[in-house]
Amino acid sequence: MAKPFQPIGAVAINVLARLAARKAAVEQFRQRGIKHYRHVELLQQASEYLARHPELFEQALATAWELATSAAHIDAIRNFCQWSNGGRGRV
14 with 61: CB under 8 angstroms? Predict the structure, then answer.
């Protein structure tokens, strides 16, 4: 069943939080000396880590806000829009 519509900001926050959880899970594997693991094990470990650390969502929100308001990011989006528009008109 398809998930209900979520605004792009909510999706970005979920992606950033899950990315942080996956990085933490990889680090946990490394600390235990595990070099080879299945992808499904990584996803399970990351989901468990995210459940134990809900503050990752707050950190992801801060990161998303930072990205959305940084001048360099805004310029990059503006340049992409002008490029994809063929340089015609305003963005």
Answer: no
CA-nearest of 77, 52, 73, 61 to 10 is 61
Q: Which residue has 């990889």 as its token pair?
A: 26
Single pTM value for the model: 0.69
Query: Cβ contacts of residue 80 below 8 Å, gap of 6+?
Result: none
Query: What are the Cα distances from residue 74, in Å, to 22, 27, 36, 68, 83?
Result: 28, 32, 39, 7, 14
The residue that leads in pLDDT, 88 or 22, is: 22
Chain-centre distance of CA 34, in angstroms?
A: 25
Q: Name the residue ranges covered by the structural domains of the chain.
A: 8-84
Write out pLDDT tens, residues 17-70. Answer: 999 999 999 999 999 999 999 999 999 999 999 999 999 999 999 988 887 777
CA 77/CA 26 separation, integer angstroms: 31
